[in-house]
Design goal:
Number of domains: 3
Largest sheet: 8 strands, parallel
CATH architecture of the largest domain: Alpha-Beta Barrel
Mean pLDDT: 80
Distance between the termini: 70 Å
Shape: globular
Helix content: 40-55%
CATH topology of the largest domain: TIM Barrel
Structural class: alpha/beta
Number of strands: 18
CATH class of the largest domain: Alpha Beta
Low-confidence stretches: 93-121, 224-275
Strand order of the largest sheet: 8-7-6-5-2-1-10-9
Number of helices: 27
Strand content: 5-15%
Radius of gyration: 30 Å
Length: about 725
């Protein structure tokens, strides 16, 4: 009886579950031509396509545990191939041949025939050329959805984006294809015909050298555990070298065979073109509770070795903290259980590892249930429009203090001052310096009296007229807008008086206009007034384009007055370590001065699992934070494609004691930190300025690196950057 033909999915699962090398060899034979055709569409150069297919098959084997039985193996592989092809094209320094005629001039023979076969038909040639002019993300979406017909859900899941994002990229890609075809004289062709031409174009067979390389993969990568794969890697790579396989295939095998505890250098994680880590930037991690660290020294050492340099630990809520306080009316359950002063413990542990420690405090949310009645009777709690207690999370839990009540304002300022006075903290981080982002708080008696006194209105129906949709809704919002600024001012003044070297920061809403009007958080004004030393906006949009736009807007708002440290959410780490790394690079390129990982969920959390990957590129090597620097003013502009202007530097360093001199090393650099133009170095004893005049060949910014020399002999490195100019 003839043996039943197994499907692609059955062959792959047979190799994954039992190590059946015949199954994987048969699967590679079946899929090689299809994978090569997909790679050619994504990167065009046959050499790059071979690299991409070799790496993609190795990646598929490396990620075998992620393959689900209900998936189509070919669709899953196509996504991996497109990713690998984009990486291969990006890494290649030779420009892709875009014009159909340049391929025709190659003449017969060799690998040129493989591409020429794709472009024999004039329609397919025009569509193929237009396809290769698309940006990488759009080209990948069009190839996978319109040419290979991979379902949007599978593409989105594997690429780590939403289906809506994939749909948007396809729409934009097709629009650009239509425009490009029209400009090339194919206006009458139409997109359906173009896509059909791409789908039906003759498919070149995978070259023999590629098939030979693929045949070696099952000998090099085993579906067994990490230890077995590591041994197979060493032996397989040596055997491949002796067999005379191409160096590029060996590189792909080495990169793709790294298992647990190591990192793939591929599209799934990093490519050789990944920019190096920057000098002089914040690389912080936010920690919700001291309980997330089981072994403080071991886990902090792990953070330091991964290239991070600051810890932001939540040490207190509105009325209780993880330490014995003379100001707060209560202590946390963790402190009551352990008796440990967690602020003192954290400061000592962080400084022992060379990490900055920032005490993260929430000013208004967090009231123990046993204290609610007393605070309610004192008129200090936030109330809903129906006069019930407002809970910050929207359901029974920690109640919140009204930011208008004088006793609450004093508590916020006194608690911040106590932290700065009592502990050797590097910074104070404010987590909720705002009203809640809801239209149902606060409508307490204090808020009612304040509104009536400020407006002089007599015919107000409270709270109906000031709720959303009410006739005085906007007036109510504008009246209370400066209240949080008043709290911020008092906190800043008392902290700076208690300990001038402590840096003050805040988590801020990314929509600054909404934040000012609706929750009273006018953070650009706080920076201008000197209340904040840096800001940390969380909750950036998932789209990379929207992310870059938002970061760029924030950098311009800050106008070089304070560093911008956006926060990267754990959902980015859950998608993949590469998704987190990609967002970090996008933030840098848009003008961020550093970043924070929000938040650390313990040694088994997504951030912790991403650290080995990040440390290979995005956070490679230790560096210093950049919020302690001399006073520097950037007066720059772009004219006739040149960046011109001057930069002034003064000796003053806020809260840093007596400074003897400052040595500065100014450069013009790319947003990722690559030096473009080195400017003359200088020593500042009072003040100094230097001129900037550089050709603008791409996005760039001026960075001032240097060393602060204190009167006592101590030194400190610093970096301060202008916004990005384009």
């Amino acid at each position: 009886m003839a043996e039943q033909v197994r499907s692609d999915e059955e062959l792959f699962i047979a190799w994954r579950d039992t190590g059946d090398r015949r199954a994987i060899a048969e699967l590679f034979r079946r899929c090689a031509d299809h994978a090569y055709r997909v790679a050619l569409r994504a990167c065009r150069r046959p050499e790059d396509a071979e690299d991409a297919v070799s790496e993609a098959f190795a990646t598929a084997m490396r990620r075998a545990d992620r393959f689900e039985r209900a998936q189509s193996f070919r669709n899953w592989l196509a996504i991996i191939v497109v990713n690998a092809a984009i990486t291969a094209r990006r890494a290649s320094r030779r420009r892709v041949l875009r014009e159909h005629r340049s391929v025709e001039r190659r003449g017969p023979g060799g690998k040129g025939d493989q591409v020429a076969k794709l472009e024999l038909d004039e329609t397919a040639a025009a569509a193929q050329t237009a396809l290769h002019r698309l940006p990488e993300q759009l080209r990948a979406a069009v190839v996978l959805r319109c040419v290979e017909n991979v379902p949007a859900r599978e593409v989105a899941r594997t690429l780590g984006v939403t289906e809506r994002t994939i749909t948007r990229r396809v729409d934009e890609g097709l629009t650009r294809l239509r425009r490009d075809l029209a400009a090339s004289g194919f206006a009458a062709l139409g997109l359906p015909a173009a896509v059909t031409a791409l789908q039906s174009a003759p498919a070149p067979a995978a070259p023999g050298s590629l098939l030979q390389a693929l045949s070696q993969l099952p000998q090099t990568i085993s579906p067994a555990g990490a230890a077995g794969a590591g041994a197979a890697l060493a032996g397989g790579a040596a055997a491949a070298v002796k067999a005379g396989l191409a160096t590029k295939v060996i590189t792909a095998l080495v990169a793709a065979s790294a298992l647990a505890g190591t990192v793939m250098v591929s599209k799934g994680f990093f490519s050789d073109s990944t920019p190096p880590a920057r000098e002089g930037e914040l690389r912080g991690v936010w920690v919700h509770s001291p309980g997330h660290f089981e072994d403080w020294d071991a886990e902090l050492a792990r953070l330091r070795e991964a290239g991070l340099n600051a810890v932001f630990l939540n040490v207190s809520d509105a009325t209780f903290g993880h330490y014995p306080s003379d100001v707060l009316p209560d202590t946390s359950e963790l402190y009551q259980k352990t008796g440990t002063d967690w602020v003192a413990h954290a400061v000592e542990a962080c400084h022992r590892q060379g990490l900055e420690f920032h005490a993260w405090r929430t000013s208004f949310s967090g009231v123990h249930r046993e204290n609610e009645i007393a605070l309610l009777e004192a008129g200090r709690l936030m109330l809903r429009s129906d006069s019930t207690i407002y809970y910050w999370e929207g359901k029974p839990g920690p109640a919140a203090l009204c930011p208008l009540h004088p006793a609450n304002v004093e508590l916020a300022a006194a608690a911040a001052e106590e932290l700065a006075k009592r502990y050797d903290i590097d910074g104070l981080h404010l987590g909720d310096m705002r009203f809640p982002h809801t239209n149902n708080a606060c409508f307490c008696e204090n808020c009612r009296k304040y509104f009536l006194d400020e407006t002089g209105l007599k015919d107000v129906r409270w709270p109906e007229d000031v709720e959303k949709g009410g006739r005085y809704y906007l007036k109510f919002l504008r009246i209370r807008e400066p209240l949080i600024t008043n709290v911020m001012r008092q906190v800043a003044e008392r902290v700076r008086a208690a300990s001038p070297e402590v840096k003050i920061s805040a988590q801020v809403f990314r929509h600054e206009k909404y934040a000012a009007l609706h929750v009273g958080q006018d953070w650009p004004a706080w920076v201008r007034a000197g209340y904040l030393d840096f800001v940390c906006p969380p909750d950036y949009p998932p789209s990379e384009g929207e992310l870059r736009t938002a970061v760029s807007r924030h950098a311009k708002l800050l106008a070089d007055r304070a560093p911008l440290y956006p926060l990267v959410a754990p959902k980015d780490a859950l998608r993949s370590p590469n998704a987190m790394a990609a967002r970090i690079e996008a933030m840098r390129e848009a003008g961020a001065d550093g970043f924070g990982l929000f938040h650390y969920g313990g040694p088994d959390g997504p951030v912790a699992r991403a650290l080995p990957v990040l440390s290979r590129a995005a956070t490679k090597g230790e560096t210093y934070t950049n919020h302690t620097s001399p006073r520097i003013a950037f007066e720059l502009k772009v004219e006739a494609r040149r960046l011109t202007g001057r930069v002034r530097c003064w000796l003053q360093v806020a809260g840093a004691g007596e400074v003897a001199r400052v040595e500065i090393e100014p450069v013009v650099e790319s947003p990722a930190g690559r030096e473009l133009v080195r400017l003359p170095a200088a020593t500042v004893t009072e003040s100094a300025e230097f001129e900037v005049d550089a050709a603008l060949r791409g996005p760039c910014r001026v960075a001032v690196y240097g060393t602060i020399h204190y009167a006592g002999g101590a030194t400190r490195r610093f970096a301060r950057r202008s916004r990005v100019f384009k």
